[in-house]
Structure formats: structure tokens, C-alpha cells
Amino acid sequence: xxxxxxxxxxxxxxxxxxxxxxxxxxxxxxxxxxxxxxxxxxxxxxxxxxxxxxxxxxxxxxxxxxxxxxxxxxxxxxxxxxxxxxxxxxxxxxxxxxxxxxxxxxxxxxxxxxxxxxxxxxxxxxxxxxxxxxxxxxxxxxxxxxxxxxxxxxxxxxxxxxxxxxxxxxxxxxxxxxxxxxxxxxxxxxxxxxxxxxxxxxxxxxxxxxxxxxxxxxxxxxxxxxxxxxxxxxxxxxxxxxxxxxxxxxxxxxxxxxxxxxxxxxxxxxxxxxxxxxxxxxxxxxxxxx
Length: 290
Ligand SMILES: C[S@@+](CC[C@H](N)C(=O)[O-])C[C@H]1O[C@@H](n2cnc3c(N)ncnc32)[C@H](O)[C@@H]1O
Known about the structure:
Elements: H1 12-25, H2 31-43, H3 47-52, H4 60-74, H5 79-83, E1 85-88, E2 91-94, H6 104-116, E3 124-128, H7 134-142, E4 147-152, H8 155-167, E5 174-178, E6 189-194, H9 209-212, H10 228-236, E7 241-250, H11 256-265, E8 269-275, E9 281-287
Parallel strand pairs: 3-4, 3-6, 4-5, 6-7
Antiparallel strand pairs: 1-2, 7-9, 8-9
This protein binds S-adenosylmethionine (SAM).
Residues 99-100, 102, 106, 129-132, 134-135, 151-154, 157, 180-181, 195-197, 218-219, 229 line the site of S-adenosylmethionine.
């Protein structure tokens, strides 16, 4: 490892300064923050503790653990995989290579759901392509009367999602179904939410290596124009949505007009697009007529 030389006794302060330079040279966007997160993880302390005792030297074991994760991070392993968990919508979720790392944009999808759907009703919710289970678990936690079904085609993603439901105390409120979209789903729902794969197949190879080489392809590949899976869902959803039921879809940039047309031609009403914090229309909301 290059950069500033470390004294023989690595202190927290020295290690953080050194790693910041090392990560910066590797093109990591928030080098100091990531160094702090990884060091806190290697030392098994809260990040704040690093500021309380900056002159504390690392033990041999701590150095070795830290060195390993720093190298993995430099080589492109996502930070979230190294620490094994993320915070999402106020809850903790375990993450691994088996399911997409939840993104902050998907928290905004939940924001829109919470704005529109009363929280005190007994409703049936369906999360299509649950991945780590973030949408299903948040629906179960924030809608205390909801019965939630979570679907994924990937058995290993479903294992992650089940673990996350247990971690958040809602394992009894969610039915997990291994299914190719609706193949093994029955019944009518009041709310269907999905963050489906929506990356244009042409762009897959151009994704940052951190995403392309570490995240499941089936979580990303949306086929031509990124619209293949969204189209399949919009065609099928009406058969599973109760009258007056709502659909919420996270979509990619530039897909809003095509998705609005698909929803309207499928017979949905009150079709609208909500924007993300950057002002891009990224959430399709529509109602199945009563
Ligand atoms: C973009 S990820 C979303 C994961 C999670 N809901 C989130 O927001 O972080 C899409 C998910 O859809 C799943 N998926 C892809 N094709 C599917 C299909 N045909 N049937 C069911 N699930 C599918 C993938 O395995 C993946 O977990």
C-alpha cells in the first residue's frame, strides 16, 4: 500500500488519514467517510468512537481485519457488502451478493406510498421482485394492518429477504413466494409495488464495475430500452389488483412517457409520475378503476 507512511504503531487518526489518500487515489468518491465506516466496522465500534479516541493504536488483529477490507474496497467490492448491512427507511437490512443493494431512490418510492395510502387499513400488499425485502419489510412495518406478499425469482434473494423480515420483527406478516412474477401468485391485492429490473440491456456493460461485477444481473437487466420487465408487469397486474387498488413502480430515467402510455393502454386511471429528489420522473403511480 502506498501514500503517507504510517508509524509502527498505527493509530486511528493515522490510519484514517492514510486510507483517505489511498481511496482518493483509487477514485473512491467519499474516501474519508468510507475509511471511517470500514475502520469502525473492523474495530466493531460506532463511527463516533473513532473521534473520541483518535490516538488509540490498532492491535495486530484489528490491523489485519482492516487491511483486508480496505484492499477489497480498493478492488471494487461495494462498501455495503464489506460491512454486510445498510440502513433503509429507518430500518436495518443485511445485504450480500445474492440481492441488489437497496438504493436511496427506493426510499422515495416508499415515501410516495406512505403519502397516498392510509396506514390504519387492513390491506393486501404485493412486492414484486423483493430482493433484500426492503419494500415488503417497510410495508409490513409502516402499515401495521397490512398482509404482505413478497415475490422473487431468485431463491437466494428470498433467503436474504426472509432474514431481513426476521431482523425487523415482521417475519409473520410476510408470505415469501419464489415465482417468475405472477406464475405462482394468486389473489387480489389493494397495493402492488415494484422496483423491477429497468436497466437498458445496452447499458449493462457500461455500468460502474462495482455494480456490474458485484450485483445480480437478474436484478438489473430490463431488456430492450429497460422496459421488458416493466411491460410484462403492467400487462399482468390488472388481473391481481382489486378495484380501486394502486400500483407503484420505480422506473429508470427517461422511461416515464413510455410507462405512462403502457399504464393507460392497460386500462389504469389516475396515471401520474412522481419525481425523485433530483427532479427526474422516476415513480409511476396508477389506480385500477373501481
Ligand atoms: C431492481 S431489483 C429490486 C430489489 C428490491 N425490491 C429493491 O428495491 O432493492 C429487482 C428484483 O426483481 C427480481 N426479478 C427479476 N426478474 C424477476 C422475475 N421474472 N420474477 C420475479 N422476480 C424477478 C430480481 O431477482 C431482483 O431481486
